[in-house]
Structure formats: structure tokens, C-alpha cells
Amino acid sequence: MRLKVTARAKVNWTLDVLGTLPNGYHELDMLLSSVTLSDQMEICESDSLTLSLGNAGSSFVPDDGKNLVLKAARLLQDETGIKTGAAISLQKNIPVGAGMGGGSSDAAAALLALNRLWHCGLSPDDLSRIGLRVGADVPYCLHGGLCRVQGIGEKVIPLPMARSIHLITIQPGRGLSTKEVFESLSEDGIRPEDRPRNDEAERALAEGNIRELVRSMGNVLQPVSVSKRPRLRQALQDLRDSGAIGAQMTGSGSVVYGVYSNAQKCREALVQLQMNYPNSRAMHTVDTGIEIVEAE
């Protein structure tokens, strides 16, 4: 059996940090959506477990045990006692160190695909439990679509979304370390005005009210990341100047995105933005995070 897998990126509509737990992890409250930007994988049975990276854009992605795909696969083997290997080919399109969950989505996709390939028979809850050991975003990526995510990432609540939303993303500089951003947040604290209004944003998404969504969005990590990557500030302004109703950072950065009222305005803005940001990309939200098909 050979499986072709699509692993989609995510964006944060909101990201709030409620406090620090006794184990040192941060307690989160977030609204996340899957978007059309995706990595591609092919997976087939093999005597050993291997990972190959298929494009030059993956030069910053490890192909050894540090890669979350291999980490997830090995945890699944440990959990089930499976001895079979797999040959995994990964084509990276989601930017690295971006706050778009690329590594987590790849890990989630590997768990789902290998559970199928190896006939493990694990439930979604079992896979989420394993995924949380790989990374905080993996349980969400196993669900995909619009979800409210709480705790350290283990509480994933699927939500209705009235309409697809069109976005443009920009990564104006180098990636950011999530760990470093959270450490700096702990030192600097959170200003009340930087907190999102999660309940209002959730309601706006359910109603398809984009302007209310923009008024409710927020990311408490954004000031910290902007201080580390000052070019983010200009990119956010350029998104607004291009016609975005609102603009914000996703995750811990270093990608920022603009929200557009329709596909036409998004396409027009992309032409303008690509003159200064060749890596800017247009995309829209979707209901699923991972798709798996059997290849002939």
C-alpha cells in the first residue's frame, strides 16, 4: 500500500496565555483554522523507518530523529509494538519557524497515515495522546478545521464555521523559536489590550461576520515576536495598506497574515504585495487538516 497525504497549515485567529501550570507549560486558549497551504507526503511499507525530503525549500528541516514525523512514527511503534518500517517522502511548502504548525501537521499526518498503513487500529483519542507527546499543536492538527484549543493543546473542541475566509501570509524574515518567544513573554508579561476576545471571535466565525472577527482577534505573543523581528511590524502595515480588513501574527511567528473580504480582493492584494514580499501567498480556510488517499 502507498498513501498520498496532504498535511495542511493552520492560522491562529486568537492566542491567549492564561497562566503557567505547575509543570512549567503555559495554559492556552486559542481559535485555530486549517488553510489550503499544505505539505505533501508519500508513505509506503519498508523494512526500516526512513524519511527523505523532496525539495530545496526544506533545507532548514531536519531529516533525522529531530524531525517530528520520525518522532511521531517511533512513538507509534513503541505504543503498538509494530516492527514494520515505512519509507516516508516529505515535500515541504509550509514555511519553517512560521507559527503555521507545519511540523505539527506533518507529525499528525504521519500518525494518521501510519495507523492506517500498519493496521494499528488506534482511536482518535489514542492518536491525540501520542501526538501531544510530539508537540502541543499535534492534537489540533489531527482534527483540523476550526477548533477552540485549550490547556496545553490537549483540549480540542471542533466548531462550526459559516464561510471560508481568504488570507494572504507573509514571512518577512527568519523563523522564530517558539520556546524563546514564550520565555520572553514570561519575562515581559501580557498587556490587557493584547488579549483576544475568544468568545466573540468564536461567535463571529460561526456567523460568518468577518469584521466582528477582526475586532475580536488577538495574539498575546505578537508584541514579543515583533520585538525580535521588527520587520513584522512593517509587514502588518503593508497587509493593511493592501486592503486587508485586519492583520495579525499567527502562532509565535514569524508569519503574519491579512484577512480579506473576498477572493477577488485577496488576488488583487497578492499582486501588489508580491512586489516587496515574493514569498507572500494567498490561501483560504478549509474544514479538514489532513487528507489521505491510496495511490495506485
Commentary on this structure:
Strands 1, 2, 3, 4, 5, 6, 7, 8, 9, 10, 11 and 12 form a 12-stranded mixed β-sheet that branches. This protein is 35% helix and 30% strand. The chain is globular, with a radius of gyration of 19 Å. The chain has helices at residues 68-80, 102-117, 124-134, 138-143, 178-188, 198-207, 210-216, 222-228, 231-241, 263-273, and strands spanning 2-20, 26-46, 49-53, 85-91, 147-151, 155-158, 166-170, 218-219, 246-249, 256-260, 281-286, 290-295. The model has no long low-confidence stretch (mean pLDDT 93). 47% of the residues are buried. Strand 3, helix 1 and strand 4 (85-91) form a beta-alpha-beta unit. It is built from 10 helices and 12 strands. The protein is α+β, with helices and mostly antiparallel strands and 296 residues long. It has 2 domains: 2-159, Ribosomal Protein S5, domain 2 (2-Layer Sandwich), CATH 3.30.230; 166-286, 2-Layer Sandwich (Alpha-Beta Plaits).
